[in-house]
Design goal:
2 helices; 4 strands; about 35% helix
Length: about 70
């Protein structure tokens, strides 16, 4: 299992953080996910290909709020 943290640049709404958290946890490769609203971070434990997972996560974030940009730490 691999752990990765992403910056959610532009995350300014606790409601959006909750939505992202709930949707990311539904991705089969994700074993654990936590969105830290205060620090605008998404931390994942996952299995599989990171680049494919990044595209999935970025798509989820964009579906919640198109102004949020996902960046690797």
């Amino acid at each position: 299992m691999t752990e990765k943290t992403y910056v959610l640049e532009g995350l300014c709404c606790p409601n959006c953080a909750t939505k992202i958290d709930e949707k990311v946890k539904q991705v089969p490769e994700v074993k654990q996910a936590t969105v830290d609203f205060r620090n605008t971070r998404l931390t994942l434990e996952y299995e599989g290909d990171e680049s494919a997972l990044f595209e999935t996560i970025a798509g989820i974030v964009q579906s919640v709020d198109e102004d949020i940009i996902v960046k690797a730490c």
